[in-house]
């Protein structure tokens, strides 16, 4: 089969959407499919990689290093008339994503969309809560233009179905347990953070931006620090709020964006992971933390709802219970024997997850659409 994946973001850009799309592409290729990619041209692109159509893009405001694709309906029409895919996956709701939906509809090519971002929640994070309803209607119109919308949790599936999204299909996520492994813990790396094995290292991994609810992470760490004065807060990632955080918190350690084995080494070298976001639809970093043997404190949603049991792999608290989040973080931070027991449980809970399983399910969905069936026949790909 020939499949095309359309995305506004792709590695070397580092974010959950980019890495998820890359993993899906690699999984289809491993299953001997012809996989094509459509994405915006990035600054480092001198020529298009094999089976990749590069389209014009523009810098995403307030996000250095990220871009979005400009409208390209006519170009996609010409390209797909020459190399017609059997099915298309559209990962993002930007101008390029809309163009892909229009072109596919005109050509009669089936499309699956991916629901990766709660833009309605972003409105609240960026001070415009009155636009949440508008954002949700916009996303519903986009995704209902596809034959299937893929989501990572049954929680999100139920939410979207309740709000009028059609053909919502569950496609679970996985984690590379060979890469994210407690054995990658690195005392030498911890030494560069100014700690030995007896000290506590608290981690934040992800985009450093307003929608991630970062003030709560800062508050939680300051409460931890009151009980554990030698604790260090290590931040892995980048984003528009990094500069202000560094200026206001000179004792925090900022490692910038890390990828691959370097990211796995940073994860495994931590002791507690704080994930304060309420806007992530899943949170791949939660699985990466668990696979690395690092307990998680998070709100009860997304990956944490599925894979973190309070008192076993970390702690989850009700959404928006910020006081509860801080209490849970302090409790785990001050109980070393409990965290040590959790390390093995964290690893065990994700040991059966494999990216190849996700690729198989994704392939099944695209093949179903390509052969003329509807997504209603496969409400879950778990």
> What is the helical fraction, as a range of percent?
40-55%
Number of strands: 15
Element order: H for helix, E for strand: EHEEEEHEHEHHEHEHEHEHEHEHEHEHHH
Distance between the termini: 22 Å
Q: Give the overall average pLDDT.
A: 93
CATH level 1 name of the largest domain: Alpha Beta
Question: Mind summarizing the main beta sheet?
Answer: 7 strands, parallel
Percent of residues in beta strands? 15-25%
CATH topology of the largest domain: Rossmann fold
* Structural class estimated from helices and strands: alpha/beta
Question: How do the strands of the widest beta sheet line up side by side?
Answer: 3-2-1-6-7-8-9
The tally of helices reads 15
Instruction: Supply the number of structural domains.
Output: 2
Provide a descriptive summary of the structure in words.
With 382 residues, this protein is of the alpha/beta class. The protein folds into 2 domains: 197 residues, 3-Layer(aba) Sandwich (Rossmann fold); 168 residues, Glycogen Phosphorylase B (Rossmann fold, 3-Layer(aba) Sandwich), CATH 3.40.50. Helix content is 41%, strand content 16%. The strands form 3 sheets. A 7-stranded parallel beta sheet has the order 3-2-1-6-7-8-9, sandwiched between helices. Strand 11, helix 9 and strand 12 form a beta-alpha-beta unit. The longest helix is centred in the C-terminal third of the chain and has 16 residues. It starts with a strand and ends in a 12-residue tail after the last helix. The mean pLDDT is 93.
């Amino acid at each position: 089969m020939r499949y095309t994946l359309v995305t506004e973001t792709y590695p070397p850009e580092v974010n959950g959407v980019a890495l998820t799309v890359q993993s899906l592409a690699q999984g289809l290729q491993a299953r001997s499919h012809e996989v094509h990619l459509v994405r915006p041209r990035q600054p480092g692109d001198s020529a298009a990689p094999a089976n990749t159509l590069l389209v014009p893009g523009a810098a995403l405001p307030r996000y250095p290093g990220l871009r979005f694709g400009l409208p390209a309906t006519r170009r996609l029409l010409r390209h797909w008339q020459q190399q017609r895919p059997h099915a298309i996956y559209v990962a993002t709701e930007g101008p390029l994503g809309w163009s892909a939906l229009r072109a596919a509809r005109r050509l009669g090519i089936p499309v699956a969309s991916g629901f990766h971002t709660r833009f309605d929640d972003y409105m609240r994070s960026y001070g415009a809560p009155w636009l949440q309803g508008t954002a949700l209607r916009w996303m519903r119109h986009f995704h209902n233009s596809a034959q299937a919308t893929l989501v990572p949790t049954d929680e999100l599936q139920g939410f979207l179905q309740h709000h009028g999204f059609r053909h919502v299909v569950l496609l679970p996520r996985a984690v590379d347990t060979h890469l994210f492994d407690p054995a990658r813990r690195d005392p030498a790396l911890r030494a560069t953070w100014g700690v030995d094995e007896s000290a506590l290292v608290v981690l934040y991994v992800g985009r450093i931006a307003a929608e991630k609810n970062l003030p709560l992470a800062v508050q939680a760490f300051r409460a931890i620090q009151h009980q554990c004065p030698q604790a260090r807060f290590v931040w892995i990632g980048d984003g528009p709020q990094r500069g202000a955080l560094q200026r206001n918190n000179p004792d925090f350690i900022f490692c910038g964006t890390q990828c691959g084995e370097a990211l796995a080494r940073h994860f495994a070298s931590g002791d507690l992971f704080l994930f304060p976001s309420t806007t992530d639809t899943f949170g791949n970093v939660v699985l990466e933390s668990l696979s690395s043997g690092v307990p998680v404190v998070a709100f009860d949603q997304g990956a944490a709802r599925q894979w973190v049991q309070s008192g076993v792999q970390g702690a989850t608290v009700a959404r928006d219970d910020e006081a509860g989040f801080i209490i849970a973080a302090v409790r785990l931070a001050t109980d070393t024997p409990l965290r040590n027991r959790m390390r093995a449980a964290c690893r065990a809970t994700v040991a059966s997850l494999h990216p190849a399983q996700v690729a198989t399910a994704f392939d099944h969905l695209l093949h179903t659409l390509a052969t003329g069936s509807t997504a209603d026949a496969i409400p879950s790909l778990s």
